[in-house]
Amino acid sequence: MRCSFGQRWLIVLSRLKALSPDQNAVAAALCLKCGLCCDGTIFRDVKLVQGDDPIALKSLGLRRLRPGSKTAPALLIPPRLRFLQPCAALHGCRCSIYGSRPAHCRQFECLLFKKVTGRRASPTQALRLIGAARRQAQKVRRLLRGLGDADEGRALGERFRRTTRRVEQARPNARTAELYGQLTLAFHDLNLLLQDEFYRPGALDPGVQPGEAKRAARPGKPFARRQEEA
Description:
By secondary structure, the chain is mainly alpha-helical. Helix content is 46%, strand content 5%. Helix 2 packs antiparallel against helix 5. The longest helix is centred in the middle third of the chain and has 24 residues, at 123-146. It is globular, with a radius of gyration of 18 Å. The termini are far apart.
């Protein structure tokens, strides 16, 4: 018998409660139900640093991006190799190259992970937030497809900006304008949820001014702030 969505979450929660009381183990189990830091929802690419082996990583299937390429016109200087997201090594919510993943992937811990390990959030609360964020990301993807962008190989922020440019350059009919309005609000709501519970650029990136991450979207002016880099 196939389980409903709610039943599946209850099964996951029961397994989490059966784990060791070690909060790190609980948080690690939550990561396997999330994947937002790897599927293009939060980040658009991953910078490589000293110690990473780009040739080995490329041989494992990661899509390499060179600074200055047409897909990355505004990368930082000095130039660094990056790997695009969604990550080609992500299968469902599981990393297929976990033991060989880049340094930034090893070091990154989202806000929710830290809350659980710091006992400031329970596994139940974390699961609910993960579920809400994944549903909102799926809503954004569905609206993007409705507006003609079915490129699931690119990060959500990049797809949103590309669709925005296309809609603004054309003369959309009433249906397209309605869908685009829905997309703008959905993308804005997703960003607020991510920045509140998963990744807050203003707290981690000195190049982001305080409050910029939560700038409200205004009607007709979509929340199109650049998607942060890992």
